[in-house]
Write a structure and sequence with these properties.
The structure holds two protein chains of two kinds.
Chain A (H helix, E strand, L loop, with lengths): L1 E10 L2 E11 L4 E5 L6 H9 L4 E10 L2 E2 L5 H7 L1 E4 L6 E5 H15 L7 H15 L9 E2 L5 H15 L3 E5 L7 H14 L5 E6 L12 E6 L2 E6 L1 H10 L13
Parallel strand pairs in A: 3-10, 3-11, 6-9, 9-10
Antiparallel strand pairs in A: 1-2, 1-4, 4-5, 7-8, 11-12
Helix pairs in contact in A: 4-5, 5-6
Chain B lengths: L3 H19 L14 H10 L4 H15 L43 H9 L4 H7 L11 H14 L2 E4 H7 L1 H7 L10 H9 L2 E7 L9 E2 L1 H6 L6 E7 L4 E8 L9 E2 L2 E6 L4 E8 L13 E10 L5 E8 L4 E4 L2 E4 L5 E10 L4 E10 L5 E10 L4 E10 L7 E10 L5 E10 L5 E10 L2 H8 L5 H12 L1 H4 L4 H14 L6
Parallel strand pairs in B: 2-4, 3-5, 4-7, 5-8, 6-9, 7-9, 8-10, 9-11, 9-12, 10-13, 11-14, 12-14, 13-15, 14-16, 15-17, 16-18, 17-19
Antiparallel strand pairs in B: 1-2
Helix pairs in contact in B: 1-6, 2-3, 3-9, 7-8, 11-12
The chains are: A alpha/beta, B alpha/beta.
Chain lengths: ~250, ~475
């Protein structure tokens, strides 16, 4: 599914990622944990293709093709979805209108017919039921005036609508209270299947109580320093990141 | 709005009709360039105008001679080339069919490409490009139905010069009432030399049964640069008028100086919508239309209502302020505007709301979008006169910048001469966000579509004022006008 090899990336000439290696097979949920400034969000944004992040070395293969060679919109159409830590507001554009444009861009890329308004609304209704989402949210402008919880739920809903094969969740738990966290996690769990993979980026192991990962990786100073199963997350919760061996020996 | 295409078709058919019936004997005539009293007499004679109208023109001309071309507008980035008024030909008979392209093959392919992007059907593209009429449409019967419908309602909608002959008393009563012949330099010039335009009269208590549109007519005209439009709504009448030009017009003449006058009596309502897409010139600022237009509405009666909506994407320079004089008590004036400048386009546009009556209200929403090397200026006056007790104004003025070579400027003028006035002004300037584009990209939407979506969202309040089909065209137009403006 996703194969990251020796990935190096910089922002304004400052190296952030310093040789990431990561394999995520189809259907697996992997979690990246790490302290602030370790490069977690950079990894998400490099995968999604944000321009201000420069890849200086390494490769990323997605379903057998070179991911880094594609523009961000093409990556999305190929099935890579990123749930934003801070979803962006687009004033005056209704969420439904935006989402239909997105769904149809993705469908066209996959050789499917465009959904007309009726078919689209039918799909919206089905997916909203699965995720227990109040569809009145979709009549408002994209993310404008949404509460933190509403924004994150809308991200998960978009994920459901776009039917991606690789989902990157960038600190989706940040700013959520326990109830909202549970709702968002239930949404993600409802979308788990044997073909769809997830990369769940988080600072706190708390999220992993709800979205149970197959593998946990610890990211520090731009490198994965430890990988393990779910228990690694528990260990981090008890001992903190200082308890993880650091490759450079520096304090985290 | 199923009747709308018919309106367009019929208006155009009517124009054709009129031209064939009236212009035949002067078809080959074009007056040589230059302007003097003889030229004006010549125009008037060719249009077989009554003496009073000739005198009105001559008076305007004599006044125009005493006026200076204004230069106060804010065009920081344009090599102002003064208009040579003696180099313009002020009368040219509509092109005869022999002069027109015989088929689409003879039309500039670039022009056709634009029509295609705008989604204009093939037959209409041909009509817009000026391909001979009878090769495209045979629409006389449609025209009859349409005319009957309006006639039944008592609505007059005809070319201005026809109104001069058919309804001289109405024209004489209202012409120049809102924009006097000596109002300003360009209005005076228009009054002296205007060639044609539209006349609308909606009698007392009548709601016009359809949207009136000049979509085709303006496009079909070869001599469109000095139009004159007059719309009168009597007591309790209401009308929605669409002035459209969704296709760029390659006009050799640089100057477009139209005058539009609206008059609303007690409880009357006039909604005037414009989509302006005259030829903007090229990316180096060569060519393009100077669009210097005087548009003004008079809310003469109590509880009358005039609403201007404009989407301005064309012209090298746009310089216009559709305004409302709120004379009747409790009258309402509205102005909704989207102005987009790209390449080297410049726009100085806005409105004037003059509150005279008691409890008058005005609402202004202006959205300026600057891309490329475009410069966009909002200039607005809200004037509350001493007798305008409890006047209210709300102004919202937003600018969006794309790239770092363009500019946005705001000049709001507020003159309140009555202490009970409440005037609110809100302004914002934003850059189109890289983060917004990236977000939409991440959902599979291309950068070009993303920009179009963001811009349309930015303009939503204004586009919502347009009749549905116009709004669709306006969206497409914004899209086409911004093509290639993101790297």
């Amino acid at each position: 599914m996703l194969s990251i090899k020796n990935l190096h990336a910089s922002v304004e000439d400052t190296p952030i990622l310093k040789g990431i290696n990561l394999e995520i097979p189809a259907g697996e949920v992997h979690s990246i944990m790490g302290p602030n400034g370790s490069g977690k969000s950079t990894l998400a944004r490099v995968l999604a293709g944000e321009e201000s992040y420069e890849v200086t070395d390494g490769s990323v293969t997605f379903n057998g093709v070179d991911l880094l060679d594609m523009d961000p919109d093409v990556r999305a159409r190929e099935g890579l979805f990123m749930a934003f830590q801070y979803p962006v507001e687009i004033p005056g554009v209704s969420t439904k209108y935006f989402l239909r444009a997105a769904v149809n861009a993705v469908r066209e890329h996959r050789g499917l017919d465009e959904l007309d308004a009726y078919e689209f609304l039918k799909e919206v209704k089905e997916k909203a039921e699965v995720l227990d989402l109040d569809t009145s949210l979709l009549d408002r402008s994209v993310n404008e005036g949404f509460s933190g919880g509403e924004k994150k739920r809308a991200e998960i809903f978009q994920m459901a609508m776009l039917d991606p094969s690789m989902c990157v969740l960038d600190e989706t738990d940040s700013g959520l209270d326990i109830d909202a966290l549970k709702i968002v996690s239930d949404g993600v769990n409802a979308l788990r299947n044997e073909k769809r993979s997830f990369l769940v980026i988080t600072h706190y192991q708390r999220l992993l109580n709800y979205i149970v990962p197959d593998r946990v990786h610890v990211l520090m100073d731009g490198q994965i320093v430890e990988s393990g199963d779910r228990d690694l997350g528990m260990k981090l919760e008890e001992q903190g990141y200082a308890g993880v061996e650091h490759p450079c020996g520096a304090d985290a | 709005m199923p009747e709308d295409p018919n309106v367009a078709l019929d208006t155009w058919a009517e124009q054709t009709d009129y031209k064939w019936g009236f212009v035949t004997d002067i078809e080959s005539e074009t007056l040589p360039p230059g302007l003097d009293e003889d030229v004006i007499r010549g125009i008037s004679a060719r249009k077989r105008e009554p003496e009073w109208l000739l005198e009105w023109r001559l008076e305007a001309y004599r006044h125009w001679l005493t006026m200076d071309e204004p230069e106060w507008a804010h065009f920081p980035d344009h090599d102002w080339r003064p208009v040579d008024y003696q180099a313009i030909s002020y009368y040219s008979a509509p092109k005869s069919d022999e002069d027109r392209p015989k088929s689409l093959d003879e039309v500039d392919p670039k022009l056709l490409e634009t029509y295609e992007k705008l989604g204009i059907p093939l037959e209409e593209r041909a009509a817009l490009a000026g391909v001979a009429v009878d090769a495209v449409f045979d629409s006389v019967s449609v025209a009859t139905t349409y005319k009957d419908k309006l006639k039944e309602a008592g609505v007059i909608f005809c070319p201005f010069s026809e109104a001069v002959h058919e309804h001289p008393e109405l024209v004489q009563q209202y012409l120049g009432r809102v924009v006097p012949a000596n109002d300003n330099f360009f209005a005076a010039l228009n009054s002296a030399v205007f060639t044609d335009g539209s006349f609308v009269f909606v009698p007392k208590g009548v709601t016009c049964p359809m949207e009136l549109s000049t979509y085709f007519r303006i496009n079909a005209m070869s001599t469109g640069q000095f139009e004159r439009t007059l719309i009168v709504a009597e007591e309790g009448a209401s009308v929605s008028y669409l002035e459209g030009c969704t296709a760029p017009m390659r006009d050799e003449n640089q100057l477009h100086a139209a005058v539009v006058e609206l008059i609303a009596l007690d409880d009357a309502s006039i909604k005037y919508s414009t989509i302006q897409n005259w030829y903007p010139g090229d990316e180096n600022g060569v060519g393009g239309i100077y669009n210097f237009v005087t548009k003004r509405g008079l809310c003469e009666g109590d509880r009358s209502h005039i609403s201007w909506t404009q989407v301005e994407t064309g012209s090298a320079i746009t310089w216009k302020y559709p305004s409302c004089i709120l004379k009747g008590d409790e009258s309402i004036g509205e102005f909704y505007s989207v102005a987009l400048t790209n390449m080297k386009q410049q726009a100085d546009t806005g409105t004037k709301m003059v509150h005279l009556g008691r409890n008058t209200r005005s609402n202004i929403v202006s959205k300026g979008i600057s891309a490329g090397n475009g410069q966009n200026t909002y200039r607005g006056l809200v004037k509350i006169r001493p007798k305008a007790v409890n006047a209210r104004n709300y102004t919202q003025c937003d600018s969006m910048l794309m790239g770092d070579r363009c500019g946005a400027h705001t000049f709001p003028y507020i003159e309140a001469e009555n202490d009970s006035a409440v005037v609110e002004h809100e302004a914002s300037t934003s850059k189109i966000g890289e983060d917004q584009i990236f977000y939409l990209n991440q959902r599979g939407i291309s950068s070009e579509d993303a920009v179009s979506m963001i811009v349309n969202g930015f303009c939503r309040e204004v586009l919502a004022e347009l009749p549905m089909e116009f709004a669709v065209e306006a969206r497409k137009l914004l899209e086409v006008s911004l093509e290639d403006s993101v790297g």
